[in-house]
Design a protein that fits this description.
The chain is an all-alpha fold. The protein has five helices and no strands. The protein is elongated.
Amino acid sequence: MHQARFYSAALALFLIAQCWLFNLLAHDSHLLGVFPWLLGLVVVPLVILLAVRQRSHSSSGASASELRRFGWSVLWPACLAFACFFALLSAVAFGSGRLSLVPFSFAATLVSSLALGVGSTEVAVAIAARATRPTARGSAA
């Protein structure tokens, strides 16, 4: 499970970095976004695809359900860390007068990043399953 921890840490760091950097570049202290630029949405599918692909190649007999569980084991801790970061960022950005937004920002970040991640995991598993499936041309030779 060292691979899952590595990819989970990488995903969390990429999510946090894109959120912090893109919100900083927006120059609007009254607006805070989980994925401020659409480029930030590419982070999750890219890391999940790389993780599932690497896991598929390292354990050639991995089934789709095993790859799916591996993708989720990468996704869950990263999304949880990202949601905690965003809740802290919203608490700092909006001050003590808006502390009621902190639980909402945590939940919204967690749900949106998990939804993006689960969809990305399903696509990555489908791609990995298609890549490892023997083709008719390959099996006839």
